[in-house]
Amino acid sequence: MSSSSLPRRSLLLGAGLVMAAPQMVLAQGAKPRVRMMTSLGPITIELEDKRAPLTSANFLRYVDAKAYDGGSFFRAARNDWAPTQGTIVAQPPAKSRPFAPIRHESTTMTGLSHVHGAISLGRFAPGTATNTFFICLGDQTFLDAQPGEPGDNLGYAVFGKVVSGLSNAQKILAQPTGGETKFVEQKDQWLKKPVIIETARRA
After folding, report:
1. Structural domain includes residue 189
2. Which domain holds residue 131?
3. What is the mean pLDDT of each run of 10 residues along the chain (203 residues)?
4. Residue-level pLDDT at 5
5. pLDDT of residue 12
6. Are 50 and 109 contacting, i.e. CB atoms less than 8 angstroms apart?
7. For residues 43 and 101, what is the distance between their CA atoms, to the nearest angstrom?
8. Which residues make Cβ contacts (< 8 Å) with residue 150, sequence separation at least 6?
9. What is the Cα–Cα distance from 108 to 128, expressed in whole angstroms?
10. Where in 32-150 does DSSP place strands (E)?
11. How many domains does the chain have?
12. Around 186, how many Cα atoms within 13 Å sit in the side-chain half-sphere?
């Protein structure tokens, strides 16, 4: 199976959508970092708040609301051609109400890419992204915007990278899959036992 055959649109799920966009002014200075404590160890993420300001602010809004506490990494989409590579997908707990969706910041706008360690925001159609995110393990650049391609070619919105805990992210990718899902294209990608996000806080 080649990378071009992976359903790009199936990368992300989210719950409930409402319309509007967050307005948040991020602090000047160093790039913000978020430390997630998971049941398989910590993962620290550095956000590209200057290059992807809207998407970074959106993520921090959920972090500051403690919305990811009790959430989980529920999906491990391993590449058929390289099983130690792929994406791990996370979301808040089901009881968490999402904020309004945000405008899509494509990789052509930000200059960022779905390389090893990148964190990106999931979506259905452009402008529907809320709180589901994924981490790339191995380069997944076919998830970047692909100008000139037919259909929805805007890709996903990278907004940072993992700076510590990639080995723990790799452990999540290796967890047993085959969990129940209603999405046919995601069969054998949902974890049998989701990896819990215990806390997510600014570092």
Report:
1. yes
2. 32-202
3. 41 38 54 98 98 98 98 96 96 96 98 98 96 98 95 97 98 95 88 98 97
4. 38
5. 43
6. no
7. 25
8. none
9. 18
10. 33-38, 41-47, 72-79, 82-91, 118-121, 133-137
11. 1
12. 21
For residue 26, being part of any structural domain is answered with: no
For residue 166 the two structure tokens come to 């990639």
Residue 95 pLDDT:
92
16 is a domain residue: no
Kindly tell me the burial class for residue 180, based on how many C-beta atoms sit within 10 Å of its own C-beta (0-12, 13-18, 19 or more).
exposed
Instruction: Confirm whether 10 is domain-assigned.
Output: no
- What is the amino acid identity at position 116? H
Closest C-alpha among 71, 77, 120, 74 to residue 98: 71
H-type helices in 65-185, by residue range? Answer: 107-110, 166-173
**pTM: predicted TM-score of the whole model, two decimal places:** 0.86
Q: What is the pLDDT of residue 7?
A: 43
Taking CA atoms, 190 is separated from 12, 36, 88, 194, in Å, by: 12, 20, 10, 8
- Other beta carbons within 10 Å of 1: 8
Token pair of 84, please?
């130690």
Contact 191, 74 (CB under 8 A): yes
Query: Per-residue b/e over 82-106, b at no fewer than 16 CB within 10 Å?
Result: eeebbbbbbbbeeebebbebbebbb
The CATH number of the domain holding residue 178 is 2.40.100.10
Nearest Cα residue to 73 out of 162, 175, 141: 175
